[in-house]
Design a protein that fits this description.
The protein is of the alpha+beta class. The protein folds into two domains: 17-180, no CATH class; 214-478, no CATH class. Helices cover 40% and strands 14% of the residues. It contains 15 helices and 14 strands. The protein has helices at residues 43-48, 56-64, 132-147, 186-194, 198-212, 219-240, 290-305, 312-324, 326-341, 351-364, 369-378, 389-402, 408-415, 423-434, 439-448, and strands at 4-5, 25-27, 37-41, 67-68, 75-77, 81-83, 86-88, 96-103, 109-115, 130-131, 154-166, 170-180, 242-243, 265-266. The strands form five sheets. Strands 3, 8, 9, 10, 11 and 12 form a six-stranded antiparallel sheet that branches. A two-stranded parallel ribbon has the order 1-4. The longest helix is centred in the middle third of the chain and has 22 residues, at 219-240. The protein binds adenosine monophosphate (AMP) and magnesium ion (MG). Adenosine monophosphate binds next to loops. Residues 250-251, 260 line the site of magnesium ion (MG).
Protein backbone atom coordinates (compact mmCIF):
# COMPACT_ATOMS: atom_id res chain seq x y z
CA UNK A 1 0.00 0.00 0.00
CA UNK A 2 1.40 3.39 -0.99
CA UNK A 3 -0.66 5.16 1.68
CA UNK A 4 0.41 6.70 4.91
CA UNK A 5 -2.01 5.48 7.54
CA UNK A 6 -3.19 6.82 10.87
CA UNK A 7 -2.14 10.44 10.86
CA UNK A 8 -3.66 12.87 13.31
CA UNK A 9 -7.00 13.29 11.56
CA UNK A 10 -9.64 11.16 13.20
CA UNK A 11 -12.80 10.20 11.33
CA UNK A 12 -15.15 8.02 13.40
CA UNK A 13 -16.03 5.59 10.59
CA UNK A 14 -18.93 3.22 11.08
CA UNK A 15 -19.26 1.51 7.71
CA UNK A 16 -22.32 -0.40 6.56
CA UNK A 17 -22.30 -0.32 2.74
CA UNK A 18 -18.97 -2.15 2.81
CA UNK A 19 -20.77 -5.04 4.56
CA UNK A 20 -23.11 -5.58 1.58
CA UNK A 21 -22.39 -8.41 -0.89
CA UNK A 22 -19.38 -8.11 -3.20
CA UNK A 23 -21.48 -7.51 -6.30
CA UNK A 24 -22.58 -4.12 -4.97
CA UNK A 25 -19.20 -2.46 -5.48
CA UNK A 26 -15.55 -2.84 -6.33
CA UNK A 27 -13.04 -2.43 -3.53
CA UNK A 28 -10.05 -0.29 -4.37
CA UNK A 29 -8.13 2.66 -3.04
CA UNK A 30 -7.65 6.14 -4.42
CA UNK A 31 -4.71 6.77 -6.73
CA UNK A 32 -2.26 9.17 -5.07
CA UNK A 33 -1.60 12.50 -6.74
CA UNK A 34 1.57 14.50 -7.20
CA UNK A 35 1.26 17.55 -4.97
CA UNK A 36 -1.92 17.88 -2.90
CA UNK A 37 -2.75 21.31 -1.52
CA UNK A 38 -5.85 22.28 0.40
CA UNK A 39 -8.27 24.79 -1.13
CA UNK A 40 -11.07 24.55 1.41
CA UNK A 41 -12.07 22.49 4.42
CA UNK A 42 -15.56 22.73 5.88
CA UNK A 43 -14.86 22.97 9.63
CA UNK A 44 -18.51 23.33 10.63
CA UNK A 45 -19.53 20.23 8.69
CA UNK A 46 -16.49 18.34 10.00
CA UNK A 47 -17.47 19.18 13.57
CA UNK A 48 -21.04 18.02 12.94
CA UNK A 49 -19.65 14.73 11.62
CA UNK A 50 -17.40 14.31 14.65
CA UNK A 51 -14.23 14.64 12.56
CA UNK A 52 -11.31 15.94 14.52
CA UNK A 53 -9.04 18.32 12.72
CA UNK A 54 -5.51 18.15 11.51
CA UNK A 55 -3.16 20.62 9.90
CA UNK A 56 -3.61 21.65 6.30
CA UNK A 57 -0.93 19.43 4.72
CA UNK A 58 -2.43 16.37 6.39
CA UNK A 59 -5.96 17.31 5.39
CA UNK A 60 -4.70 17.84 1.84
CA UNK A 61 -3.06 14.41 1.79
CA UNK A 62 -6.17 12.70 3.20
CA UNK A 63 -8.66 14.42 0.95
CA UNK A 64 -6.56 14.00 -2.17
CA UNK A 65 -6.44 10.27 -1.58
CA UNK A 66 -2.71 10.16 -0.78
CA UNK A 67 -3.34 8.99 2.76
CA UNK A 68 -6.20 6.85 3.97
CA UNK A 69 -7.75 7.69 7.34
CA UNK A 70 -7.98 4.79 9.77
CA UNK A 71 -11.24 2.92 9.35
CA UNK A 72 -11.74 3.88 5.70
CA UNK A 73 -12.83 0.97 3.48
CA UNK A 74 -12.73 2.57 0.04
CA UNK A 75 -15.02 1.23 -2.64
CA UNK A 76 -16.62 2.26 -5.93
CA UNK A 77 -20.37 1.75 -5.95
CA UNK A 78 -22.18 -0.04 -8.78
CA UNK A 79 -25.27 1.52 -10.33
CA UNK A 80 -27.05 1.88 -13.67
CA UNK A 81 -29.20 4.68 -14.99
CA UNK A 82 -31.29 6.27 -17.69
CA UNK A 83 -29.19 8.99 -19.29
CA UNK A 84 -31.36 11.40 -21.29
CA UNK A 85 -33.98 8.66 -21.45
CA UNK A 86 -31.65 5.88 -22.62
CA UNK A 87 -30.95 3.04 -20.25
CA UNK A 88 -27.32 2.32 -19.53
CA UNK A 89 -27.22 -1.03 -17.70
CA UNK A 90 -23.91 -0.29 -16.02
CA UNK A 91 -22.48 3.00 -14.83
CA UNK A 92 -21.04 3.04 -11.32
CA UNK A 93 -18.55 5.35 -9.62
CA UNK A 94 -16.11 6.02 -12.43
CA UNK A 95 -14.14 8.64 -10.57
CA UNK A 96 -15.46 8.52 -7.03
CA UNK A 97 -14.80 6.34 -4.01
CA UNK A 98 -16.84 5.89 -0.88
CA UNK A 99 -14.38 6.03 2.01
CA UNK A 100 -17.00 4.99 4.52
CA UNK A 101 -19.76 6.37 6.73
CA UNK A 102 -19.96 8.34 9.93
CA UNK A 103 -22.91 8.91 12.24
CA UNK A 104 -23.00 12.64 12.91
CA UNK A 105 -23.81 14.54 16.08
CA UNK A 106 -27.38 14.77 14.76
CA UNK A 107 -27.60 10.95 14.73
CA UNK A 108 -27.74 10.80 10.94
CA UNK A 109 -25.48 8.41 9.03
CA UNK A 110 -23.62 9.97 6.13
CA UNK A 111 -21.28 8.81 3.39
CA UNK A 112 -17.89 10.41 2.91
CA UNK A 113 -16.90 10.18 -0.73
CA UNK A 114 -13.90 11.33 -2.71
CA UNK A 115 -14.73 12.58 -6.21
CA UNK A 116 -11.90 12.75 -8.75
CA UNK A 117 -9.80 10.16 -6.91
CA UNK A 118 -8.66 8.13 -9.91
CA UNK A 119 -9.89 5.38 -12.22
CA UNK A 120 -12.09 2.51 -11.04
CA UNK A 121 -13.44 -0.60 -12.77
CA UNK A 122 -16.43 1.61 -13.73
CA UNK A 123 -14.44 4.38 -15.41
CA UNK A 124 -15.13 3.19 -18.97
CA UNK A 125 -13.29 5.72 -21.18
CA UNK A 126 -12.88 8.31 -18.40
CA UNK A 127 -9.70 9.22 -16.54
CA UNK A 128 -11.27 9.05 -13.08
CA UNK A 129 -10.31 12.63 -12.43
CA UNK A 130 -11.99 16.01 -12.01
CA UNK A 131 -10.69 19.42 -12.88
CA UNK A 132 -10.72 22.38 -10.57
CA UNK A 133 -13.77 24.10 -12.12
CA UNK A 134 -16.45 21.49 -11.38
CA UNK A 135 -14.93 20.83 -7.95
CA UNK A 136 -15.27 24.48 -6.97
CA UNK A 137 -18.71 24.74 -8.58
CA UNK A 138 -20.00 21.74 -6.61
CA UNK A 139 -18.44 23.09 -3.41
CA UNK A 140 -20.07 26.50 -3.86
CA UNK A 141 -23.45 25.40 -5.15
CA UNK A 142 -24.00 22.48 -2.79
CA UNK A 143 -23.11 24.60 0.23
CA UNK A 144 -25.30 27.44 -1.07
CA UNK A 145 -28.22 25.03 -1.50
CA UNK A 146 -27.74 23.87 2.06
CA UNK A 147 -27.77 27.48 3.28
CA UNK A 148 -30.96 28.04 1.24
CA UNK A 149 -32.54 25.19 3.21
CA UNK A 150 -32.68 22.76 0.29
CA UNK A 151 -31.80 19.08 0.83
CA UNK A 152 -28.43 18.44 -0.75
CA UNK A 153 -25.15 16.62 -0.54
CA UNK A 154 -22.51 18.75 1.19
CA UNK A 155 -18.88 19.60 0.53
CA UNK A 156 -16.29 18.71 3.16
CA UNK A 157 -13.06 19.50 1.34
CA UNK A 158 -11.55 20.62 -1.94
CA UNK A 159 -7.93 19.88 -2.77
CA UNK A 160 -5.71 20.68 -5.75
CA UNK A 161 -3.85 17.64 -7.01
CA UNK A 162 -0.85 19.40 -8.50
CA UNK A 163 -1.56 17.40 -11.65
CA UNK A 164 -3.06 18.34 -14.99
CA UNK A 165 -6.16 16.77 -16.47
CA UNK A 166 -6.95 16.70 -20.15
CA UNK A 167 -10.34 18.07 -21.18
CA UNK A 168 -10.79 20.40 -24.16
CA UNK A 169 -7.54 21.90 -22.90
CA UNK A 170 -5.10 21.06 -20.11
CA UNK A 171 -6.60 22.02 -16.77
CA UNK A 172 -5.58 21.85 -13.12
CA UNK A 173 -6.85 18.74 -11.33
CA UNK A 174 -8.73 18.67 -8.04
CA UNK A 175 -10.56 16.31 -5.69
CA UNK A 176 -13.83 17.10 -3.94
CA UNK A 177 -14.90 15.34 -0.74
CA UNK A 178 -18.65 14.97 -0.76
CA UNK A 179 -20.91 14.10 2.15
CA UNK A 180 -24.34 12.56 1.51
CA UNK A 181 -27.06 10.88 3.54
CA UNK A 182 -26.33 8.05 1.11
CA UNK A 183 -25.35 7.63 -2.51
CA UNK A 184 -28.21 5.22 -3.21
CA UNK A 185 -29.75 6.30 -6.50
CA UNK A 186 -32.72 5.22 -8.59
CA UNK A 187 -30.00 3.68 -10.74
CA UNK A 188 -28.76 1.55 -7.84
CA UNK A 189 -32.12 -0.26 -7.86
CA UNK A 190 -32.18 -0.29 -11.65
CA UNK A 191 -28.89 -2.15 -12.01
CA UNK A 192 -30.17 -5.18 -10.08
CA UNK A 193 -33.70 -5.02 -11.51
CA UNK A 194 -32.28 -5.02 -15.05
CA UNK A 195 -30.19 -8.09 -14.18
CA UNK A 196 -33.24 -9.76 -12.62
CA UNK A 197 -31.08 -10.31 -9.54
CA UNK A 198 -33.88 -10.58 -7.02
CA UNK A 199 -31.58 -11.45 -4.11
CA UNK A 200 -29.52 -8.31 -4.63
CA UNK A 201 -32.66 -6.23 -5.07
CA UNK A 202 -34.07 -7.54 -1.77
CA UNK A 203 -30.80 -6.85 0.00
CA UNK A 204 -30.67 -3.31 -1.40
CA UNK A 205 -34.28 -2.68 -0.44
CA UNK A 206 -33.67 -3.87 3.14
CA UNK A 207 -30.53 -1.76 3.41
CA UNK A 208 -32.18 1.37 1.99
CA UNK A 209 -35.29 1.06 4.12
CA UNK A 210 -33.20 0.53 7.27
CA UNK A 211 -31.06 3.54 6.45
CA UNK A 212 -33.62 6.06 5.25
CA UNK A 213 -37.08 4.83 6.19
CA UNK A 214 -36.92 2.36 9.06
CA UNK A 215 -40.71 2.66 9.52
CA UNK A 216 -41.51 1.83 5.89
CA UNK A 217 -44.01 -1.00 5.66
CA UNK A 218 -42.72 -2.31 2.33
CA UNK A 219 -41.52 -1.32 -1.16
CA UNK A 220 -44.77 0.51 -1.95
CA UNK A 221 -44.40 2.63 1.16
CA UNK A 222 -40.73 3.30 0.39
CA UNK A 223 -41.75 4.41 -3.11
CA UNK A 224 -44.39 6.73 -1.64
CA UNK A 225 -41.84 8.27 0.70
CA UNK A 226 -39.24 8.81 -2.01
CA UNK A 227 -41.95 10.39 -4.18
CA UNK A 228 -42.79 12.75 -1.30
CA UNK A 229 -39.18 13.77 -0.87
CA UNK A 230 -38.53 14.24 -4.57
CA UNK A 231 -41.74 16.24 -5.06
CA UNK A 232 -40.70 18.58 -2.25
CA UNK A 233 -37.16 18.78 -3.61
CA UNK A 234 -38.11 19.78 -7.14
CA UNK A 235 -40.56 22.36 -5.80
CA UNK A 236 -37.71 23.81 -3.73
CA UNK A 237 -35.48 23.96 -6.82
CA UNK A 238 -38.17 25.78 -8.76
CA UNK A 239 -38.56 28.24 -5.90
CA UNK A 240 -34.95 29.41 -6.16
CA UNK A 241 -34.61 29.18 -9.94
CA UNK A 242 -32.30 26.17 -9.85
CA UNK A 243 -31.76 24.06 -12.95
CA UNK A 244 -30.05 20.76 -12.19
CA UNK A 245 -29.25 20.14 -15.83
CA UNK A 246 -28.69 16.38 -15.78
CA UNK A 247 -31.58 14.69 -13.99
CA UNK A 248 -30.65 11.21 -15.15
CA UNK A 249 -31.88 8.41 -12.91
CA UNK A 250 -28.32 7.86 -11.68
CA UNK A 251 -28.35 11.44 -10.40
CA UNK A 252 -31.58 10.99 -8.46
CA UNK A 253 -31.26 9.90 -4.82
CA UNK A 254 -33.55 7.83 -2.62
CA UNK A 255 -32.70 10.17 0.27
CA UNK A 256 -34.24 13.14 -1.55
CA UNK A 257 -31.00 15.11 -1.56
CA UNK A 258 -29.85 17.09 -4.58
CA UNK A 259 -26.81 15.32 -6.02
CA UNK A 260 -24.28 15.80 -8.84
CA UNK A 261 -23.78 19.46 -9.57
CA UNK A 262 -22.53 19.08 -13.13
CA UNK A 263 -23.96 21.53 -15.66
CA UNK A 264 -26.29 23.05 -13.06
CA UNK A 265 -27.13 26.76 -13.16
CA UNK A 266 -29.53 29.33 -11.74
CA UNK A 267 -32.01 31.49 -13.60
CA UNK A 268 -31.09 35.12 -14.00
CA UNK A 269 -34.02 36.53 -16.04
CA UNK A 270 -37.11 34.38 -15.60
CA UNK A 271 -37.85 32.08 -18.51
CA UNK A 272 -39.42 28.68 -17.78
CA UNK A 273 -37.79 27.12 -20.85
CA UNK A 274 -34.25 27.99 -19.78
CA UNK A 275 -31.64 25.34 -20.53
CA UNK A 276 -27.93 25.81 -19.88
CA UNK A 277 -26.44 22.38 -20.41
CA UNK A 278 -24.80 22.17 -23.81
CA UNK A 279 -25.68 18.48 -24.14
CA UNK A 280 -29.39 18.98 -23.30
CA UNK A 281 -30.31 19.77 -26.90
CA UNK A 282 -34.02 19.09 -26.59
CA UNK A 283 -34.55 20.83 -23.27
CA UNK A 284 -35.38 17.58 -21.50
CA UNK A 285 -34.06 19.09 -18.25
CA UNK A 286 -35.15 22.74 -18.79
CA UNK A 287 -36.15 24.71 -15.67
CA UNK A 288 -39.89 24.04 -15.82
CA UNK A 289 -39.48 20.54 -17.31
CA UNK A 290 -37.92 19.34 -14.06
CA UNK A 291 -41.39 18.87 -12.58
CA UNK A 292 -42.22 16.35 -15.33
CA UNK A 293 -38.87 14.60 -15.46
CA UNK A 294 -38.87 13.77 -11.77
CA UNK A 295 -42.18 11.93 -12.28
CA UNK A 296 -40.62 9.96 -15.12
CA UNK A 297 -37.68 9.12 -12.84
CA UNK A 298 -40.03 7.94 -10.11
CA UNK A 299 -41.79 5.72 -12.67
CA UNK A 300 -38.38 4.12 -13.29
CA UNK A 301 -37.93 3.59 -9.56
CA UNK A 302 -41.40 2.04 -9.38
CA UNK A 303 -40.50 -0.34 -12.21
CA UNK A 304 -37.30 -1.36 -10.45
CA UNK A 305 -39.13 -1.99 -7.14
CA UNK A 306 -41.93 -4.01 -8.71
CA UNK A 307 -40.18 -7.41 -8.64
CA UNK A 308 -40.02 -7.10 -4.85
CA UNK A 309 -43.78 -7.30 -4.57
CA UNK A 310 -45.31 -10.70 -3.86
CA UNK A 311 -47.81 -10.15 -6.66
CA UNK A 312 -46.14 -7.82 -9.15
CA UNK A 313 -49.18 -7.74 -11.45
CA UNK A 314 -51.43 -6.43 -8.71
CA UNK A 315 -48.77 -4.00 -7.52
CA UNK A 316 -48.59 -2.34 -10.94
CA UNK A 317 -51.89 -0.63 -10.22
CA UNK A 318 -50.81 0.59 -6.79
CA UNK A 319 -47.45 1.87 -8.04
CA UNK A 320 -49.03 3.55 -11.04
CA UNK A 321 -51.46 5.38 -8.78
CA UNK A 322 -48.56 6.64 -6.63
CA UNK A 323 -46.69 7.93 -9.66
CA UNK A 324 -49.81 9.46 -11.21
CA UNK A 325 -50.55 11.37 -8.01
CA UNK A 326 -47.13 12.99 -8.12
CA UNK A 327 -47.69 15.91 -10.56
CA UNK A 328 -50.47 17.32 -8.37
CA UNK A 329 -48.22 17.07 -5.29
CA UNK A 330 -45.38 18.86 -7.03
CA UNK A 331 -47.72 21.58 -8.24
CA UNK A 332 -49.15 22.05 -4.74
CA UNK A 333 -45.65 22.24 -3.25
CA UNK A 334 -44.54 24.64 -5.98
CA UNK A 335 -47.54 26.91 -5.38
CA UNK A 336 -46.87 26.87 -1.63
CA UNK A 337 -43.32 28.01 -2.31
CA UNK A 338 -44.39 30.77 -4.68
CA UNK A 339 -47.23 31.86 -2.41
CA UNK A 340 -44.64 32.43 0.32
CA UNK A 341 -42.51 34.32 -2.19
CA UNK A 342 -45.32 36.84 -2.61
CA UNK A 343 -46.02 36.95 1.13
CA UNK A 344 -48.82 34.43 1.48
CA UNK A 345 -48.33 31.91 4.27
CA UNK A 346 -51.61 30.28 3.34
CA UNK A 347 -52.90 29.63 -0.12
CA UNK A 348 -56.44 30.31 -1.35
CA UNK A 349 -58.16 29.41 -4.63
CA UNK A 350 -57.33 32.61 -6.56
CA UNK A 351 -53.68 32.63 -5.53
CA UNK A 352 -52.42 30.23 -8.20
CA UNK A 353 -53.65 32.63 -10.88
CA UNK A 354 -52.03 35.59 -9.10
CA UNK A 355 -48.69 33.73 -9.01
CA UNK A 356 -48.98 32.60 -12.62
CA UNK A 357 -49.81 36.13 -13.73
CA UNK A 358 -46.71 37.55 -12.03
CA UNK A 359 -44.48 34.88 -13.59
CA UNK A 360 -45.95 35.52 -17.05
CA UNK A 361 -45.25 39.24 -16.70
CA UNK A 362 -41.73 38.56 -15.42
CA UNK A 363 -41.10 36.34 -18.42
CA UNK A 364 -42.41 38.90 -20.90
CA UNK A 365 -40.29 41.63 -19.26
CA UNK A 366 -36.98 39.77 -18.73
CA UNK A 367 -37.30 40.35 -15.00
CA UNK A 368 -34.52 38.91 -12.88
CA UNK A 369 -35.98 35.98 -10.93
CA UNK A 370 -34.15 36.42 -7.61
CA UNK A 371 -34.08 40.22 -7.53
CA UNK A 372 -37.73 40.66 -8.50
CA UNK A 373 -39.02 38.54 -5.64
CA UNK A 374 -36.67 40.13 -3.12
CA UNK A 375 -37.61 43.61 -4.35
CA UNK A 376 -41.24 42.90 -3.47
CA UNK A 377 -40.16 43.59 0.12
CA UNK A 378 -38.42 46.86 -0.76
CA UNK A 379 -41.11 48.31 -3.03
CA UNK A 380 -38.69 48.40 -5.98
CA UNK A 381 -39.90 45.40 -7.94
CA UNK A 382 -41.25 47.48 -10.84
CA UNK A 383 -37.67 48.50 -11.70
CA UNK A 384 -36.96 44.88 -12.59
CA UNK A 385 -39.44 44.93 -15.48
CA UNK A 386 -38.56 46.06 -19.00
CA UNK A 387 -41.95 47.78 -18.95
CA UNK A 388 -42.54 48.75 -15.30
CA UNK A 389 -46.27 49.27 -15.89
CA UNK A 390 -46.52 45.50 -16.42
CA UNK A 391 -45.78 45.23 -12.70
CA UNK A 392 -48.08 48.07 -11.64
CA UNK A 393 -51.32 46.45 -12.79
CA UNK A 394 -50.32 43.17 -11.11
CA UNK A 395 -49.36 45.04 -7.95
CA UNK A 396 -52.88 46.41 -7.53
CA UNK A 397 -54.35 42.91 -7.33
CA UNK A 398 -51.50 41.73 -5.12
CA UNK A 399 -51.91 44.60 -2.62
CA UNK A 400 -55.61 43.80 -2.38
CA UNK A 401 -54.80 40.19 -1.54
CA UNK A 402 -52.10 41.24 0.98
CA UNK A 403 -54.71 43.16 2.96
CA UNK A 404 -55.71 39.71 4.18
CA UNK A 405 -52.20 38.27 4.67
CA UNK A 406 -50.60 38.81 8.08
CA UNK A 407 -46.80 38.99 8.33
CA UNK A 408 -46.44 39.19 4.55
CA UNK A 409 -43.09 40.91 4.76
CA UNK A 410 -41.44 38.40 7.07
CA UNK A 411 -42.91 35.53 5.02
CA UNK A 412 -41.36 37.04 1.89
CA UNK A 413 -37.99 37.78 3.46
CA UNK A 414 -37.73 34.16 4.61
CA UNK A 415 -38.71 32.81 1.18
CA UNK A 416 -36.74 35.12 -1.12
CA UNK A 417 -32.96 34.95 -0.92
CA UNK A 418 -30.88 38.04 -1.58
CA UNK A 419 -28.06 35.95 -2.98
CA UNK A 420 -27.93 32.88 -5.17
CA UNK A 421 -24.77 31.44 -6.72
CA UNK A 422 -25.04 33.31 -9.99
CA UNK A 423 -23.45 31.50 -12.89
CA UNK A 424 -21.16 34.35 -13.91
CA UNK A 425 -19.87 34.74 -10.35
CA UNK A 426 -19.04 31.04 -10.17
CA UNK A 427 -17.22 31.25 -13.49
CA UNK A 428 -15.34 34.29 -12.27
CA UNK A 429 -14.25 32.46 -9.09
CA UNK A 430 -13.16 29.43 -11.13
CA UNK A 431 -11.20 31.56 -13.60
CA UNK A 432 -9.36 33.25 -10.73
CA UNK A 433 -8.62 29.90 -9.04
CA UNK A 434 -7.20 28.54 -12.28
CA UNK A 435 -4.76 31.48 -12.10
CA UNK A 436 -3.95 30.56 -8.49
CA UNK A 437 -6.13 33.18 -6.79
CA UNK A 438 -8.70 31.52 -4.48
CA UNK A 439 -9.90 34.76 -2.88
CA UNK A 440 -13.01 35.18 -5.10
CA UNK A 441 -13.98 31.56 -4.35
CA UNK A 442 -13.67 32.09 -0.59
CA UNK A 443 -15.53 35.39 -0.71
CA UNK A 444 -18.38 33.89 -2.73
CA UNK A 445 -18.57 30.95 -0.37
CA UNK A 446 -18.76 33.26 2.66
CA UNK A 447 -21.46 35.40 1.07
CA UNK A 448 -23.55 32.39 0.06
CA UNK A 449 -23.46 30.93 3.55
CA UNK A 450 -26.01 33.64 4.53
CA UNK A 451 -28.17 33.98 1.42
CA UNK A 452 -31.09 35.73 3.12
CA UNK A 453 -28.93 38.41 4.79
CA UNK A 454 -29.01 41.96 3.48
CA UNK A 455 -25.27 42.49 3.71
CA UNK A 456 -24.02 45.61 1.97
CA UNK A 457 -20.53 44.10 1.76
CA UNK A 458 -21.85 41.68 -0.85
CA UNK A 459 -24.12 44.05 -2.77
CA UNK A 460 -22.09 43.45 -5.96
CA UNK A 461 -23.00 39.76 -5.87
CA UNK A 462 -26.69 40.57 -6.32
CA UNK A 463 -26.32 41.95 -9.82
CA UNK A 464 -27.39 39.90 -12.78
CA UNK A 465 -24.70 39.50 -15.43
CA UNK A 466 -24.06 42.12 -18.04
CA UNK A 467 -24.49 40.75 -21.58
CA UNK A 468 -20.72 40.21 -21.73
CA UNK A 469 -20.70 38.33 -18.40
CA UNK A 470 -23.73 36.15 -19.07
CA UNK A 471 -23.14 32.39 -19.04
CA UNK A 472 -25.12 30.94 -21.92
CA UNK A 473 -24.04 27.32 -21.80
CA UNK A 474 -22.69 24.95 -19.18
CA UNK A 475 -20.69 21.85 -19.96
CA UNK A 476 -20.63 18.31 -18.72
CA UNK A 477 -16.87 18.18 -19.39
CA UNK A 478 -16.39 17.64 -15.72
P1 LIG B 1 -22.17 12.26 -14.11
O1 LIG B 1 -22.64 12.84 -15.40
O2 LIG B 1 -21.08 13.07 -13.44
O3 LIG B 1 -23.27 11.94 -13.18
O4 LIG B 1 -21.43 10.90 -14.48
C1 LIG B 1 -22.04 9.86 -15.22
C2 LIG B 1 -21.14 8.66 -15.21
O5 LIG B 1 -19.90 8.93 -15.85
C3 LIG B 1 -20.80 8.14 -13.83
O6 LIG B 1 -20.73 6.74 -13.90
C4 LIG B 1 -19.45 8.75 -13.59
O7 LIG B 1 -18.69 8.02 -12.64
C5 LIG B 1 -18.83 8.68 -14.96
N1 LIG B 1 -17.77 9.70 -15.15
C6 LIG B 1 -17.93 11.03 -15.30
N2 LIG B 1 -16.74 11.64 -15.46
C7 LIG B 1 -15.79 10.68 -15.40
C8 LIG B 1 -14.36 10.67 -15.49
N3 LIG B 1 -13.66 11.79 -15.67
N4 LIG B 1 -13.74 9.47 -15.38
C9 LIG B 1 -14.42 8.34 -15.20
N5 LIG B 1 -15.76 8.27 -15.12
C10 LIG B 1 -16.45 9.42 -15.20
MG1 LIG C 1 -23.71 11.16 -11.53
Amino acid sequence: MPYLRGMTLHIPFDNSYARLPDGFFARLGPRPVKAPSLIAFNDALAAMLGIEGADDPRLAAMFAGNALPDGAEPLAQLYAGHQFGHFNPQLGDGRALLLGEVVGRDGIRRDIQLKGSGPTPFSRMGDGRAWLGPVLREYLVSEAMHALGIPTTRALAAVRTGETVIRETLLPGAVLTRVAQSHIRVGTFQVFAARRDLDALRTLYAYTAARHDPDATGPADLLARVIDRQAALVAAWLGVGFIHGVMNTDNCTLSGETIDYGPCAFLDAYDPDTVFSSIDRHGRYAYAAQADVIVWNMAQLATALLPLMPEPEAAVEEFTALVHAMPARIEAARLDRFAAKIGLAERRPGDAALIGDLLDRMHANQADFTNTFRALSDGTARDQFADPTAFDSWETQWRARLADAPDADSVMRAANPVLIPRNHRIEEAIAAAVQGDDAPFHRLHRALSRPFADDAAYADLRSPPTPAEAVRATFCGT
